[in-house]
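JOB MANIFEST
job_type = single_chain_structure
chain_count = 1
residues = 758
[input]
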Amino acid sequence: MDLLKTYHLYKKISQYPNLLGLIRSTFMEILDKKGVISRSRLYEEALEELKKDGLPDTEANRQEYLEALIDYYFATHLSPTEIENYINLARKKDKAMTLSKIVNQDQASSLKIFNVLREFCEIPKGEVYISREEAEGIRVALISRFISSQLPFISLAKNHITIRDVDSLLEHTRWSRKRPGKLGGKAAGMILAHKILLPILEERDPELEAYVRVPETWYLNSGVFSEFLDRNNLYLFHTYKYRDREAIEEEFSRIEERFRFASFAPEVVEDFRKILEEIGEHPIIIRSSSMLEDNFGLAFSGKYLSIFLTNQGDIETRLNHFIMGLKKVFASTFGPDPILYRRDHGLLDYDERMAMVVQKVVGRQFGDYFFPFAGGVMFSRNVHAWNPKIKKEEGLVRLVFGLGTRAVDRVGSDYPRMIPLSHPQLRPEVTGDQIRKYSQRQVDVLNLKKGALETIDFRTLKTRIDNPDLFYAVSIQKDDHLFPPLFKTQGLKEEDICLTFDNFLTKTKFVPLAKKILSRIEDTYGRPVDIEFAWDADTFYLLQCRSLSIRKEKEIVELPEEVNRDKILFTTRTALSNSIVPNLEYIVYVDPKAYDVLPTYERKMEIASVVNLLNKSLAEKRYALMGPGRWGSNDINLGVKVTYSNINKTKLLVEIAFARNGSTPEVSYGTHFFQDLVEADIVIVPLYPDDPDSFFNEEFLLKPPNLLGEIVPEAKGSEAVVRVLHIPSVSNGLYLQVFLSTYQQKGIGLFGPSEENK
């Protein structure tokens, strides 16, 4: 029997004649480790058997007897499964050496590396692996070659993204035949978070295994972008980033036009066709994934385009729409916002390259519409703690019904559900009327018939579709009371319901799952994180993960006491940070009441242009920007429609919310706009003048001479709406000093001497 086992083993290893030495070396190491027989004893037995058989003691004879004994002991002391595993281990070691050599060669093509990687991964995974040191070296080389070269990312990713993970990614990646490239920051963050939650080689958490998914995803590495620029002679646009702001803004429309008429190589178009054939007629999103995007401390939130495509019809129609969308995202690399963002953060000289993530949109079809049950963004740190019960370290969620776009953008008179995960049912509102007033009214969906992203009133949507999950999303109002439905078949009248997600928070796994996901990823990152997600069919879909920019705050801010009222500009009961903003010399005040009565869209857009001009003119000064409602809102009637590049030089942004038609603005925490302010170290202050516990000295801003015409002569026609004050000139040499305390949830802006004179 032992002889037969040895014969079978010999037949197995003889399939790999070039690896016999490595296989037996591996066998001998395992025999020694398992205590079957030591190396020294094997050598002794080989010599004893040699002498018994009366053969001469030569090196060749010794080796022959040693190999026979190794085979015999291995065959008779290990199970067939173990034998198979260790033969494969030797094969893996051989391929790992080849892979390590090839992946570290600068001249090796992506295809060559991929082919060697395939050969390694075609060996069955089994239960024994190459050493951690061998694997780590290859992981680092593969990650830096194909995913990201950012060292903070690599130092984390090498512990979670395996060699087989990279192989799986590359099977869904299209790369240039001519230029090297990587998958970029957005792809990198999503991939790493996925592997932290659902590792391929380590034990998985059963709950995460059951509920967490990543949508089906394809990647275009940055080499496709580089080759596109080469082919169409578009490299000249890299020089525009060194021009002044006006030139960058003026040139961008020309850049977009050049990109529209540019073309891809035929073989690249064929790659796109194959992706769409694999996806089929399912809505997709083309997401930017630049090399700098989603880096630690610099998220580039919302700086580049993401394009939704309904992806319906014949393959040629879908391909044409795909290519048009791709070009738009490529062109956004040269947009004013990302370039000025890079300039502000010392990254202008970086040769930015754009990769792409092509993802199936999460959701289901309801008639002409396609959308998930819910989407949003969640944070492992909650800086918007409006109640002392809330534990900041347990995180916050911004949740909306439908596509999550409304959770990360500043939208019109609409409100996501803000969920403190330590107390998920706690709300800042109390009465049913208040809850209804501050609930979501509009839903973002994909209209498959029109082939476009569409915003539709929630009640209108309900009349057009039958969504079985409304039980989890809505509450019913009777008199001044709101309560969630008791059962799924309960009748729901459009006029009586509003979106609260109360049943969703209490009757699904979402809250404990969100806590676990945030905690696990933050522990691994070693810093706070934010995650974009969708939820559909009782499943959590991970869409994006990045480190969360947290303002460097003082631990405690002592608010000045007993300040004379005539020295106070404002007080507020809402503080989003522990901050002191000293020595503000100028105030740019967009009068909310004057802005509100501007008659046309064009006039309100002119105000945004004036703010942009002032931002440039006062760039070297310490100035505060104060104005109506929601700065950066998509709804021009609720706030000045500015972007990051229009306000990036201010030190303080005050959102003034006079009561108007019974509405006030939401806190912007968690939006891309808010993240821009944090990263630029711009402090944001919500101010509610009609709150009896707040104070706003509006007269101080309206009476003094308006310097707008002196600073920006071309803006004289807007002096009735936009006012500019030089504070020391109208306050006896004093400056505006702002103190905010999250602990007390209070803030004050007062006039005091310059810090240098104290």
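[summary]
The domain at 364-547 is CATH 3.30.470.20 (D-amino Acid Aminotransferase; Chain A, domain 1).
The radius of gyration is 32 Å.
exit_status = 0
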